[in-house]
């Protein structure tokens, strides 16, 4: 049976400024946490930018955005998810006045998108906290960041109020529990970071997100504001009730963030967790009301894999390549980076979110990271025969269609890394997600030329048929 997607379904792709823009020190841009992690978000932190950090140049979208957006338009994108680099607008993060050159750059990007009828979907903070805010204030552990963030979002909301409708406040906000420096700019080493300080930082981000929603609606009531979380369905390893409870507790660590964004209050299960772990969250006057009165319009999420969990996880093989922990599922195959491939997990995630919240859902990251081989075809064109990516995406999109048949309200789908970019977790180029091959290698060599992969034409057909070509 043909999968039917809504007529206004937003098909597109997704990227992040820190992984593809490059131009890290151009036109007044300040440093971000990404500029000192040359081995990826879980690697060592350097004193400053180093030559081996591929993110400094990325794929040079900063100078090639017209070429890239034209390719997105050729595929038929209805929406394009990107992020604004906070340190392009406020180089240190705590200035009172913005950097006009940074604002002007995004004006050009959004204007170029609108030229082709592509709707921007903009993440306000995507793993690129200004480095100064990390060094001077220890990132989101410090409540002062709320004010700096408010100044930043008010600036960009005002500037782009007629150019951007869809906004996400923080990328994968629940990742701060597992990657405190990359996600929250927290310099304290993870092994020394107390649960008290970590969850206080979480509170600051949640308050800042609610404040951003409030500011957004004041500037343009038509803005649509979403939260963005990692979706990772967690299966019990066995029917043993203890394993089922372990899986439930693991999932609640993720639900915490969407629960507060959507329902506007801390759930009772986390209050017990706080009591059991001697955590006391400091609320300032007005925090409770701010959270309650400024909930999100929609829920967006990334989905790459599911995991399993057990009461005694040490008895099993740990999942590879997964920042959220968990156990490898023996029933699933895995990618070259050990990420388990589970299309039905996306179906489960969509239904679980919708059953829980009855809010519109937006899949803003999904894709397969793989080693691609650039070849010359029979017509003399350079391309990649990435049938493995086509199979992965087809199978996941079929499951999106199944969820839609169930009545789940899905706004759109933006494939992650629609053009090859630098991996966030490993800072590699060889881990490629795109429909467009970028000639750049792990050693930094390459021409940066763009080439259409086989999947480019496949996705173009999927969009043109509104999903009817899926098998």
TrEMBL record:
Coiled coil: none annotated. The keyword Mitochondrion does not apply. GO terms for cellular component: cytosol. The active site is at residue 365. One of its GO terms (molecular function) is beta-glucosidase activity. Keywords: Glycosidase, Hydrolase. It holds the Pfam family Glyco_hydro_1. GO terms for biological process: carbohydrate catabolic process. Belongs to the glycosyl hydrolase 1 family. This is 6-phospho-beta-glucosidase.
């Amino acid at each position: 049976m043909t999968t039917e997607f809504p007529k206004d379904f937003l098909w597109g792709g997704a990227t992040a400024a820190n992984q593809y823009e490059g131009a890290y020190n151009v036109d007044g841009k300040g440093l971000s946490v990404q500029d000192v992690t040359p081995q990826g978000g879980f690697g060592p932190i350097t004193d400053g930018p180093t030559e081996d950090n591929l993110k400094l140049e990325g794929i040079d979208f900063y100078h090639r955005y017209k070429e890239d957006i034209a390719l997105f338009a050729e595929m038929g994108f209805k929406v394009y998810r990107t992020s604004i680099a906070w340190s392009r607008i406020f180089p240190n993060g705590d200035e009172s006045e913005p950097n006009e050159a940074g604002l002007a750059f995004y004006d050009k990007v959004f204007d170029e998108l609108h030229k082709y009828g592509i709707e921007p979907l903009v993440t306000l903070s995507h793993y690129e906290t200004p480095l100064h805010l990390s060094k001077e204030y220890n990132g989101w552990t410090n409540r002062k960041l709320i004010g700096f963030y408010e100044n930043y979002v008010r600036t960009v909301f005002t500037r782009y109020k007629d150019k951007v409708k869809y906004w996400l406040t923080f990328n994968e906000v629940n990742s701060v529990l597992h990657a405190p420096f990359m996600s929250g700019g927290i310099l304290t080493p993870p092994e020394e970071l107390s649960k008290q300080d970590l969850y206080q930082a979480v509170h600051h981000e949640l308050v800042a997100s609610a404040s951003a929603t409030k500011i957004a609606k004041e500037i343009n009531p038509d803005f649509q504001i979403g939260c963005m979380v990692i979706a990772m369905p967690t299966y019990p390893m066995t029917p043993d009730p203890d394993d089922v409870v372990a899986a439930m507790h693991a999932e609640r660590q993720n639900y915490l963030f969407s629960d507060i964004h959507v329902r506007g209050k801390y759930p009772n299960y986390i209050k017990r967790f706080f009591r059991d772990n001697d955590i006391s969250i400091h609320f300032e006057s007005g925090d409770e009301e701010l959270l309650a009165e400024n909930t999100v319009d929609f829920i967006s999420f990334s989905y790459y894999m599911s995991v399993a969990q057990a009461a005694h996880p040490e008895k099993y093989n740990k999942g590879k390549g997964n920042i959220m922990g968990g156990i490898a599922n023996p029933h699933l195959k895995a990618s070259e980076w050990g990420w388990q491939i589970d299309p039905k997990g996306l179906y489960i995630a969509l239904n679980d979110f919708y059953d829980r919240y009855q809010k519109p859902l937006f899949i803003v990251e999904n894709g397969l990271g793989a080693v691609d081989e650039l070849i010359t075809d029979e017509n003399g064109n350079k391309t990649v025969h990435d049938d493995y990516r086509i199979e992965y995406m087809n199978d996941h999109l079929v499951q999106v269609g199944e969820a839609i048949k169930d009545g789940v309200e899905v706004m759109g789908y933006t494939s992650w890394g629609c053009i090859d970019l630098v991996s966030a977790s490993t800072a590699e180029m060889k881990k490629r997600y795109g429909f467009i091959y970028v000639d750049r290698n792990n050693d930094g060599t390459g021409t940066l030329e763009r080439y259409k992969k086989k999947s480019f034409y496949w996705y173009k057909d999927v969009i043109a048929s509104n999903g009817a070509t899926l098998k």
